Amino acid sequence: MCGVRGEHASAVASDDVAREFWATSTGDGGVFDGTGWCQPTGGTRNSGDGVSNGGECRWDWGVGTGGECGISCTYVQRQPVRNVDETSWREKTKRVWVWISVTPVVTIFRLLQTRGAAGAKALLGEPVWGRIGTDHYAGYHWIDPCQRQLCWAHLKREFLAWSERAGETARIGRALLEVEKQLFALWYRARDGTVAWADFQVALLPLMARVRTLLQDGMAGADAKTQGTCRNLWQREAALWTFVWESEVEPTNNRAERPLRRAVLWRRRSFGTQSAVGSQFVARILTVVTTLRQQHRDVLDYLTAVCTAAIRRESTPSLLPLTSPLLSTR
């Protein structure tokens, strides 16, 4: 099949990989055309030069969606609310990082050499627009706390660990777990519309004050490790509560963690990639499939259109929604 020319054959090649990715990660869409030639066992191969250059259906996906993924990245960087996360990936013998940036209708994946602040800046852009949901990883600490939302699900695990220690640390951990429980109970009601948003904000004020007191207690009397975490959270206190003032922001980072899980499962099954081109393909096919699914668009139809455009040397079809929200003005 690698000698077959034509937009449909090239699209099917990439769609088979996309389907395997989706079936592996979600349990649906796992219907193949029976060729089995694109099974990425023992390392994801490079896929679909027909998607990129309009040539033979070789294992390379370098150009066709590249410009469009760049446009989508710019679009995502200008949205008012994003959620980001990262996980490791294996490229031959070295470790690289899969980064994800999620909006309601477009998701971007990028494979970068670093997990640090440089990687986050490359993904998010500088200056940062809008509000960013993250975990508590230090690579995001350069973001203004007023623009950041820390994941309370991650914090819950931290507080649970504190509660299992001794003395003042345990007391603070148990108290923060109680705050977390009340916080989510209120937020679920506000999200579902059973509590007015203004009433939700008022109800959160005592909890916000309680957390501030507990963090101060932790800085003063907890064990050394917990003191450091309390100090870190106290310095970024605003990032604990962005969701209170911005209704489109959530108190967890689930929006990013759920689609990133698909990359994790793919990595475990394929053992990573064998080249930079293969890694480029992974980032682009994850971007394309996840985004199209968000928009309820057909993956094979889109890939066929990409191949057709490449063969005819036309512009790549857009990944952006047909009716795009306005870009944020900060």
Task: Describe this protein's structure.
A 5-stranded mixed beta sheet has the order 3-2-1-4-5, with helices on both faces. It has 330 residues and is α/β, with parallel strands linked by helices. Helix 1 runs antiparallel to helix 12 (299-311). Mean pLDDT is 83; it is low at 1-5, 24-63 and 326-330. It starts with 6 loop residues before the first helix and ends in a 19-residue tail after the last helix. The protein has 12 helices and 5 strands. A hairpin with a 2-residue loop joins strand 1 and strand 2 (94-102). The chain has a domain at 152-245. It is globular. It has helices at residues 7-26, 49-52, 66-77, 117-124, 152-163, 167-192, 197-221, 224-235, 242-245, 254-270, 276-294, 299-311, and strands at 81-91, 94-102, 107-112, 131-134, 148-150.
